[in-house]
Design brief:
This protein is 75% helix and 0% strand.
C-alpha cells in the first residue's frame, strides 16, 4: 500500500481529498484486508462527496466486516434507489443478519439495475453458497467473470465451491 499512498499523496491536498481519490484509497485498503483504513478512507470520501456512489458497494462490504452497515445502506437507498451500489449495501445488511433470501433479492435487484455490475453477481453467488445452492452460485460467479474476467472475488467463490465439491480439476 505504501506505493499507492506515495502516488496519491503526490497529489495536491485539494485533489487528494476528493471523493474519487479517497474511494480508490479505500478500495486499495479493502483489497489488502485493512478494513479499518478502508473505512476511514471511504468515510472521508462520503464527507467529500456525500451524493457520490463511487465505491459504495465496496464500502458496504467493509462495514459488513466491521459489523457497522445499516446506516450506510439506508443513506444510499435514500440517495438513489436506482443505483446498484445502494442495493448491494442493503443486501450486505441482510446478509450480515443471516437473512440470505432477502439479501439475495437485494443483490438480484442490483443485477437487474445493471447487469454489467460484476460485484452484484458475485454477491449473489455468495448468498447462493450460504444457502448451499452451489449450482446457482457457480452461475453467478461465472456471470461476474463474463463482465470482468479479473474479478478476484468471483474467482475465489468459484474456487471455494469446487474445493467443497472436491472438483479439483476445475
Amino acid at each position: 500500500m505504501d506505493a499507492l499512498d506515495d502516488v496519491f499523496l503526490q497529489l495536491p491536498h485539494k485533489q487528494y481529498n476528493t471523493g474519487w481519490v479517497l474511494s480508490q484509497v479505500g478500495k486499495a485498503h479493502f483489497e489488502l484486508v485493512d478494513y479499518l483504513e478502508a473505512e476511514r478512507a471511504f468515510s472521508n470520501a462520503r464527507l467529500a462527496s456525500p451524493y457520490s456512489l463511487e465505491g459504495m458497494d465496496i464500502y458496504s462490504t467493509v462495514l459488513y466486516h466491521l459489523m457497522r452497515l445499516s446506516n450506510l445502506a439506508q443513506e444510499l437507498i435514500s440517495t438513489d434507489r436506482l443505483a446498484p451500489q445502494s442495493w448491494c449495501a442493503m443486501g450486505n445488511c441482510f446478509s450480515m443478519q443471516k437473512d440470505h433470501e432477502t439479501a439475495l433479492k437485494n443483490f438480484q435487484r442490483a443485477v437487474q439495475l445493471n447487469s454489467r455490475f460484476a460485484y452484484a453477481h458475485t454477491l449473489c453467488g455468495h448468498e447462493y453458497v450460504a444457502s448451499e445452492d452451489f449450482e446457482n452460485g457457480i452461475k453467478s460467479y461465472q456471470n461476474a467473470l463474463q463482465v470482468d474476467g479479473r474479478h478476484y472475488n468471483a474467482w475465489y467463490g468459484l474456487t471455494m465451491i469446487y474445493l467443497r465439491q472436491e472438483k479439483y480439476e476445475f
